[in-house]
Protein: DNA-3-methyladenine glycosylase I
Amino acid sequence: MPNTETPSTTDHIPDTAGWPVTGDDGRARPPWAATDPLLRDYYDTEWGNPVRDERGMFERVCLEGFQVGLSWRLILQKREAFRDAFAGFDPEAVAEMNIEHLLDDETLIRNRRKLQAAVTNAQATLALRDEGTHLGEFIWSYQPDTTPAPHTMAEVPTRSAESEQLAKDLKKRGFTFVGPVTMYALMESTGIVDTNLVGTWKRGSSGVWA
Structure:
């Protein structure tokens, strides 16, 4: 991933100038997922696969918010701890939480603003239901007409007109830590856009884009 707010492109990446890297299993992957076992497994099993349900999308919004300024690898390492702390990312449960006790939890990222954002975003997620939609449907409504077809990491966008509008509209509804770069990373990770490099084994595998 090219975004500074998505899987880190500086950790565990071979000198490949951003081109796909073929692993010992014969599968080509982007450099960020080529060697580190944790990132490789995440890429192979989850990244870019469609996420459409409310709880699944809420978790991704929260995790992307926690990742701002940090590496995605760190977020993956702490993911189960986040799930335990935030009731499996059930929006109704999180919306009623007090985060004070989490500030002393060394298994989490102890950033008050980020922890509180999960609660704020849960409340905003519930409020979306009053509009006759849910978070998954709402975010998918910003799917563009076309998706990029990058050959190298340098060609992968970090934001788009859709991610900018999504960020703006989510902020109007009370969401935080949802900037346009973060929202583009969310769109990539949940299959709304396909930024798999041309030639990698997952390119087009989501079923969303031919």
